[in-house]
What we know:
Elements: H1 5-33, E1 38-39, E2 52-58, E3 63-67, E4 79-87, E5 93-102, E6 113-114, H2 119-126, E7 135-137, E8 145-153, E9 161-170, E10 173-187
Parallel strand pairs: 1-10, 2-10
Antiparallel strand pairs: 3-6, 3-8, 4-7, 4-9, 5-8, 9-10
Amino acid sequence: xxxxxxxxxxxxxxxxxxxxxxxxxxxxxxxxxxxxxxxxxxxxxxxxxxxxxxxxxxxxxxxxxxxxxxxxxxxxxxxxxxxxxxxxxxxxxxxxxxxxxxxxxxxxxxxxxxxxxxxxxxxxxxxxxxxxxxxxxxxxxxxxxxxxxxxxxxxxxxxxxxxxxxxxxxxxxxxxxxxxxxxxxxxxxx
Length: 190
């Protein structure tokens, strides 16, 4: 009976090579999925806000709502907005929620700023929140839905909110784009 130690070592080498190959392929697949979003330019709007939205006489402990800029697709390719948020929130303010609404549910307009108990807040309360649904925006068109952020005043406000970040998908790639959205909250004088 002849033994072939080379064959056994070869089999072990083959298993090791196969295992290494599988680990390499898994790492490649994971790195493909883990690609960070690209910096986008398809949405209309600059990093500087074209308009300001503000509220005077806000009170500590109260929550206020502001509409983010209505997504406009200035590119030649359809896109899907998958999220939005305000960034660089100053001391004295805290983001407590995000909603999305169809313009048709809010009298075909975009609610700018809503105070507790006012008619704009009542309009938002009657509308159906579609935050879990992506917002599809065809090329060269405005979205039919918009985002609204809820902000709580937690103390002395130390600045304004000046930027919003939208996340969207276009041609199977994910993008982030910062758009100006200037919100001013001035505390009630005591």
